[in-house]
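Reading a protein record of the kind used here takes only a little practice. The integers have meaning only within a learned vocabulary of local backbone shapes. With that in mind, consider the following protein and its fold in token form:
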Amino acid sequence: MTPEFDQLTVVLEGDHPAHLERLQQALSSSFEGLRQVHCLSDLDQAMALLPTHGTMAIIFDHDLSDHPLEKIRLAAMPCGPLIMLTSPRQRAWATRQDGDEESNERVPAGAIAHIKWMIDRFYARISGHHLEQSVLHLTQKLKKANRELARKNDRLTELATTAHRFVDNVAHEFRTPLTVIQEFTSILDDGIGGTLSQEQRRFLRYISAATQDLTQLVEDFLDSSRLKAQSLRVDRRPNEVSAMFEAVLPTIRVCGERKSVAIETRIEEGLNQAFCDAGKVGRILINLAINAVKFSPEGQTVLLWADAGNGSEVRLGVTDSGKGLTVEDQEMIGKRFKQFGDPQASSTKGFGLGLNIAKELVVLNLGQMQIQSKRGEGCTFSFSMPCCDPQNILAHYQQVMRDHFGSTPICLLRVTPRGRAAIEPLRRALSSISHPMDLVLPTVDQRQVLLLGASDQPDHWIERLTHDYQRLLDPPKLPAAKRAMSADQKLGPIEIDYIKSWQRAGWSRAMPGQVHQMLLGLPAAA
């Protein structure tokens, strides 16, 4: 690497003044843009003039036969290249008589070229050294920054855990007084405590509505915390859509009555059962319906509907006749603690968690959420779930895993009960100890249960399942009544076998067909 000569300072020091003067002139004319040349006859003075920055070279023009210590002092100086003109050949042109005009007019070009070559070679070598030092320095800074970042991440994790624990504790503590308030409100409204006036009944409706709001808020907080901690358990099984609607309509209608918004339902005839967690679907419907009521004008209608979607699924939806959503509003859907529209003008307040939770619960039910809306024409939120056909279930599972869980291998386990234990209690037990996105499916012959999940350590997965299942068989500190109830579930010993794992390319193509064959009890293809 050639040095930048406009940043180069040259210090000349020697025992022949005329020689130094000619060398100074030669250097100044040969090094274009040379920053500075010091011509000195005293070594201590030369060392005192060393620059604090930039590139430096020292040319020491002495006969060192009588100055060995001076050579050592210069060699130890912590700066630039040290060029010594000491040989008879290098100094021959300087020892001629001053009267010899021809020989004293200029320094030989070869000497200057040699000095240039030595300076260039020196900086070519030290530039690599400086680069190595810079890399080492940056590496040390990066390691220090990583240690500090790890420390801060640990602290943030600790704070987040504390915050989630606090929210869980507060939410659980709220449940009891809210239940008491709701029960006594119902007692008073039924007239058990005495006849109420119309004004008193109106006050009770406000109390009941506020209690319902707080109850939904508590449920949102709990669901959000469990989703964040991946501790929410999912029990997917065949469910009738009509039964899921009936379970949530009372809560939704109470919300609608507050704003004089009617709630209607429409279910397509002959609809197949949906493979889902009915409780989670209920939470989705409640959150979507409450949001629809919130933004619907008084006297309007909110419709809960269900149809067959594309034929391999069941699609549920909530349609309102409110102001609709802009494109910007739709982009905000599902973000935590984000609200759209004008929540200040609404009688129902929240923290923007409802739609975020609904979106995540849709994923847990192997579906997708869609939004159809135009400003001023209302809004429709809909979501899909697979029908209760193994092939449809596996296709939806594959889609969800591809969209949300990256390239982690998909692992297949087989659980076989010893003896004649019933499969349904075993399926429920395995669902209760599995991760949210683990798929638990009994085989058609009801003899085994297959588990699919994202895992690159199947041995650890089996070990965890075995440990958690053993605790279900013999709960250590359950009261006698609960222990008897657990025994009634007819759970018994099981065997868990690892069958196969698929990398992403493999589980996208081969996994559904192979698992489907095992569910139906068919022999594997050759």
